[in-house]
Here is the input.
Amino acid sequence: MLNEVDWEYERGGSVDAEDGPDWMFEADEVTSKDPSYIFCPAPHRKQLLHLFTKHFCQHPLFAECDGKWTKEKIHWEAVHDMYNFCYTHGLCEVWGYMWACWYSPKMWHLWT
Here is the structure.
């Protein structure tokens, strides 16, 4: 799975050519007035994809290095991993997105 993530990432490059399609945005969303603004700098994108893919592939039936984990422990560890990565690299907006859309208990339940 991680090799596929690497391949897709490399195929797309590390430069954003354009914003997403209009249907991805709320009606009141606006683009940043700062032309140098980057939501997630290119050097962190591959690392984030690897971390996210690792979390996506975890399951209580799969043994971790210290035995089988409960779904609660998997969630706690995944949140801890992603938060620490974002905090360490100064990616507070990325963390906000990850929490709101993927890692909050409400959203975690939907994608796991």
Q: What stands out?
A: The radius of gyration is 16 Å. The first helix runs from residue 2 to 12. Residues 75-112 form one domain.
